[in-house]
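seq as requested:
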Amino acid sequence: MAELIETLKPSQLYTMSLCEGWTVHEVAAHLCAPWIFGARRIVPAIVRHGFRVHRANAELVRDLAVDLSAEEIAQQLRLNADFIFPPRIVVPLGQLTDLQVHGQDICRPLGLTRDLVPERMLPSLEFLLSPKARGSFVPRGRLDGLRFIAEDLDWVGGQGLLTVRGRGEALLLALTGRPVVLDELTGSGVAALRARIT
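struct tokens:
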């Protein structure tokens, strides 16, 4: 991720990412927030915004993106590559999932290819269907009655009569609410998922 960010031109950094309302630069800065702000600033922001994690994130990220250049973000990522989120903020699988999804948030709008590693996608897909992801990564109700099938991975998840099929990367982004991948999915559950995301 550090290598990717430090190669981006200013015009790319200020391109809107797939993460709604955030530029590529802001998404990159967000990845540094946990060790720069720490729980003492993150938790009060979440409480202040009525436990709406995305709103709290937006407030913190705006400040951080102003303070850090792309080069500084890359440096921070390298220095903190082994950083572990405090468990009360996000479980380790959430940390892995966040990095994979935000990498695609950056690359897809820029027309860049970034292949995700199947062995890393599989635990993230499982995590997104688990109760631990509800309310932060996945809004409650989004996945109800849906069964997800990754056509390029040996993975099926979720419970329901309606199916959603696609590549693992597209499913990962759909589960986290990125509408750009909906046309890459097939199955009887796509219409329901589209309605819930859009």
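The chain has a mean pLDDT of 91.
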